[in-house]
Design brief:
The structure holds two protein chains of two kinds. Chain A has a domain at 3-177. Chain A contains seven helices and two strands; from the N terminus they run ααααββααα. Chain A has helices spanning 3-35, 38-53, 59-81, 94-117, 152-176, 187-217, 220-257; strands spanning 128-129, 139-140. In chain A, strands 1-2 form a two-stranded antiparallel ribbon. Chain B contains 18 helices and 18 strands. A six-stranded mixed sheet of chain B has the order 15-14-13-16-17-18, sandwiched between helices. The chains are: A mainly alpha, B alpha/beta. At the A-B interface, helix 3, helix 4, helix 5, helix 6 and helix 7 of A face helix 1, helix 2, strand 7, helix 10 and helix 11 of B.
């Protein structure tokens, strides 16, 4: 493969994800426009567009912040100003599902694009390329995913999986969104507490199980290291005292033997 | 596991979800839950995939030369190395990045030692690159470093697929010509050789004519001489016999300085290999004696290709040795060793198996009484109170420093953490457990020894200090003189007839300990053996002057320095590239070092010149033919051919 072909492959991979980002932005804009404010929707569209074109690392986070701000503004308008064209809360419409698909699609496509254009693994400040000039240190080595590795199968799975996660989220919301009053707390705080417990305990349990699995797979030397560490933790103070005396006596002996 | 990008996204999503739940916005909650469920599921799938795939990863490595796969390499040649990372799991890793650690001895000439892409059962990842081996030694490949990540860059896992393979880099097969035939006066060796011996034999040179005796082969009849004399005469030819040469190779710490492949030992090995090869070409016998401060390994003189390859293997093993110093600061080794451990043993540094309490460096820092302090010795009686005061001041300072100040030092905390984690790894690797961890944590000397061993095992070059605080050379290894003397006398005792003994050793800084070896050399000379000494010259130091240069400069400087022999002049050092600038401290130190080596060399040469034993200086750009030429010239001169 020539250098030109490799470059064109790389660009085609980036272009595919750029197109997906723009497509997701379009979906967000259209879904938002159905029952939103045109100016806010346009702002979201423009910021997302800027994030795609400028390779902004914080592009997805910025879009999430803007979407959240727009929704909060709408909520504020519905509650305080009683505007008739704003949809009521607690009801998930098809537009909302489409919007969630668009947001998820944009975020994932943008991050994958960052892997192709900026770096896929975190940069290691110890690894630098090229000579430094004057007071500038050499550039940190970045590793990008080659664009030629993007395949149509990958894009296909990417698009197909988007609705799945929205459905999962809808099911979760159907359980979490039920108005509950526990110990005299309002439904809002109860939802937060429930979500925190579910997420926290779930992560803890899963991590514990995965760690157990990893220990079962560990190399004998790693297992010995673990046992040694346990022993050291238990007898750290005694071992420290003994070995410091030993080190002191060795130094004293060396001093005597020195010419 | 989570990258900074992943953490940021996770926190942002949690914040979004919390905000949505707090204000009761269903759309935001739906978006938050969508992102969170996708993120957690991706994380779970990533970890499960790792657990299933990692145990089924393997590395296949192959080294080839133009004629096919090889098991050992030759110095000075180029080889292609390919390493494949294979997975036998049914799952696919979406993106893996592999890197092969090129041993420092090798030089990568083309290709890339990194590759990246998806890893599937029928789609291995491969790195392929070409290397050249500039010097003999041993090379070690530990395996492949693997970074596994998802396509978004949220999760990252470092892994090292271990597959330790070691190869010998044999000394180069130089184009050294065979020995020049020299007359040998005495011979007890029954083997056929290349050197004429003035005894009747089956050689090709005419030795004498004598009367024909019944039984002489008719082809040896000298017909012209028979016709002149009127009776049958027979031609007698001389014998062709071999010469035995024993090479004494210094493998002590003093010649290992500079890293494997880039030190005096590598140059010695190159010279020995070339001499052995030339001897083999001339049907001479070559013996090898490797010695250091403690032990000696002796190979009887022999010849033939098999013997030569055996010698090459021994030399390659010797060339791969690295130096280690008893007095080496531990703190200067930590960054190297920790970096190596991060690269090769990432799972050994996990907090689950190798934890370090953050408060320990604050709570129990290393006390002053376990820190080695260079001794302060009073050189005269009136200096004693001053030295005693200095000792006291230093002790008070160290005690206060260790008890108070280091508790708040970030560097100390970092080094303490590194030390604990490295001590745990070393303790397990070198079977010091269960008490090894605490010993290495408290004893600087022990920790330094094992860290050097760890780095040397993985062929990481260590910058070594050459002198201690009192200016004493740390690598003089006086113990090797006794070992060398014993081995030399043993070889002399077993010598059959006049042999050649070549000592390739660093004897520069052993001025006061040379008596024993000189006595042994006298014994050899008394038995009519020939001895010569080849002294490896340190890298980066100007060569000693030749006799002509010395006499010229002595003539110029005699008015200034009186009768003291002129050793070094600044202009000569600058011209020869010996040091860059004497105005800086670095330049001054370098100059002092050069002067020291030059003086040591001149002292050594003078000492052995009394015995008529030549001392040669071997530098990296000294060609092996030059050494061989000197060897030959020595033989010819000593046997009256010149």
């Amino acid at each position: 493969m020539t250098a030109n072909e490799a470059t064109s492959d790389s660009r085609s991979g980036i272009r595919q994800y750029q197109m997906l980002c723009l497509l997701a932005l379009g979906v967000i804009f259209l879904a938002d426009l159905q029952d939103g404010v045109l100016l806010l929707s346009l702002l979201v569209l423009l910021v997302g567009f800027f994030g795609v074109l400028s390779r902004l690392r914080l592009g997805p986070i910025l879009l999430l912040v803007l979407v959240a701000a727009e929704q909060l503004a709408r909520q504020f308008a519905w509650r305080r100003l009683q505007l008739p064209y704003v949809a009521p809360l607690q009801r998930i419409a098809l537009n909302d599902l489409v919007l969630a698909i668009g947001v998820l699609g944009f975020v994932l496509a943008h991050y994958r694009m960052q892997g192709l254009m900026l770096n896929i693994v975190p940069r290691d400040p110890r690894l630098r390329v090229g000579p430094g000039r004057w007071f500038r240190r050499p550039k940190v080595l970045t590793h990008r995913r080659p664009g030629g590795l993007v395949t149509p199968v990958e894009i296909g799975w990417f698009i197909l999986c988007l609705p799945l996660w929205v459905l999962v989220a809808q099911l979760l919301w159907a359980w979490l969104g039920l108005p509950r009053v526990i110990v005299g707390l309002a439904p809002g705080p109860v939802r937060i507490i429930l979500a925190a417990w579910v997420v926290g305990v779930g992560i803890l349990l899963t991590t514990a199980l995965l760690n157990l699995w990893r220990r079962r797979q560990s190399h004998p030397e790693v297992a010995a290291l673990f046992l040694q560490d346990v022993l050291w933790k238990e007898t750290r103070r005694e071992q420290r005292r003994l070995n410091r005396w030993l080190a002191w006596s060795r130094l004293k002996r060396d001093r005597r033997e020195e010419p | 596991m989570l990258t900074p990008r992943g953490w940021l996204f996770f926190v942002a999503v949690l914040g979004l979800l919390g905000l949505a739940l707090a204000v009761g916005n269903s759309l935001l909650a739906l978006v938050g839950l969508t992102l969170l469920s996708w993120f957690l599921a991706s994380w779970l799938f990533f970890v499960v995939r790792l657990r299933l795939v990692l145990p089924r990863l393997s590395v296949e490595r192959e080294i080839r030369d133009p004629s096919g796969p090889v098991d050992s390499l030759w110095a000075g040649q180029t080889f292609s190395i390919s390493a494949q990372l294979r997975s036998e799991s049914f799952l696919v890793l979406p993106y893996a990045r592999i890197e092969d650690r090129v041993p420092p001895v090798l030089e990568r000439t083309s290709g890339n030692n990194r590759n990246a892409g998806p890893l599937a059962p029928k789609q291995p990842l491969e790195v392929s690159y070409a290397v050249s081996c500039p010097s003999p030694g041993r090379i070690r490949f530990d395996g492949l470093s693997v970074q596994i990540t998802d396509l978004q860059g949220f999760f990252l896992h470092h892994h090292f697929v271990r597959n330790v393979t070691s190869y010998r880099v044999l000394p180069a097969l130089t184009d050294a010509r065979g020995q020049i035939p020299a007359v040998k006066r005495h011979n007890l060796l029954p083997l056929l050789g290349h050197h004429p011996h003035r005894r009747p034999g089956t050689g090709s040179e005419l030795l004498d004519l004598r009367d024909y005796l019944p039984g002489d082969p008719p082809k040896t009849i000298a017909w012209k001489a028979s016709a002149r004399r009127g009776r049958l005469m027979t031609k007698e030819f001389d014998s062709e016999v071999p010469i035995r040469c024993t090479l004494f190779v210094d493998t002590s710490n003093s010649v290992r300085i500079g890293g494997a492949g880039n030190n005096a030992l590598a140059r010695i090995v190159n010279i020995v290999a070339a001499v052995a090869q030339a001897n083999t070409a001339g049907r001479d016998l070559t013996g090898l004696c490797q010695f250091d401060d403690r032990q000696v390994h002796y190979v009887r003189p022999g010849r033939g290709q098999r013997h030569l390859i055996h010698l090459f293997q021994l030399l390659a093993d010797a060339a791969g040795l690295s130096a280690s110093a008893a007095q080496f600061s531990v703190s200067s080794l930590f960054p190297l060793a920790y970096g190596l451990a991060q690269e090769i043993y990432p799972e050994y540094l996990s907090r689950e198996v190798n934890a370090m309490p953050w408060w320990l460096a604050w709570w129990a820092p290393q006390p002053a009484y376990t820190i080695r302090r260079p001794p302060l010795v009073a050189r005269s009686w009136w200096a004693f109170p001053w030295v005693w005061l200095r000792r006291l001041t230093r002790r008070i300072y160290l005690t206060f420093n260790q008890a108070l100040f280091v508790r708040f030092s970030r560097r100390h905390h970092r080094h303490y953490r590194w030390r604990k984690q490295l001590a745990a790894i070393l303790s397990v690797r070198y079977s010091l457990a269960p008490g090894g961890l605490a010993s290495l944590l408290e004893d600087d000397h022990l920790c330094s020894q094992y860290l050097q061993r760890f780095l040397n095992d993985h062929q990481v070059p260590i910058p070594m200090p050459l002198y201690d605080i009192h200016g004493r050379y740390l690598f003089a290894s006086p113990g090797k003189v006794e070992v060398l003397t014993k081995a030399f006398l043993r070889a002399v005792a077993r010598g059959r007839d006049n042999e050649l003994f070549v000592i390739l050793a660093d004897l520069l800084e052993l001025g006061d300990h040379l008596g024993k070896i000189m006595a042994a050399v006298k014994v050899a000379l008394a038995r009519h053996h020939q001895v010569m000494i080849v002294c490896p010259w340190p890298v980066g130091i100007a060569l000693p002057r030749t006799r002509r240069q010395e006499s010229g400069i002595r003539g110029q400087e005699s008015g200034i320095r009186g009768h003291e022999p002129a050793l070094i002049s600044d202009s000569w050092l600058l011209a020869s590239g010996g040091f860059s600038d004497s105005a800086t401290v670095q330049g001054l130190l370098q100059r002092t070092e050069i002067v020291r080596f030059q003086r040591a060399y001149h002292h050594l040469r003078r000492s052995f010149a009394r015995l008529r034993v030549p001392v040669l200086c071997a530098k990296s750009d000294d060609s092996v033919p030059l050494i061989l030429n000197r060897l030959e010239r020595l033989r010819i001169l000593e046997r009256g051919m010149a």
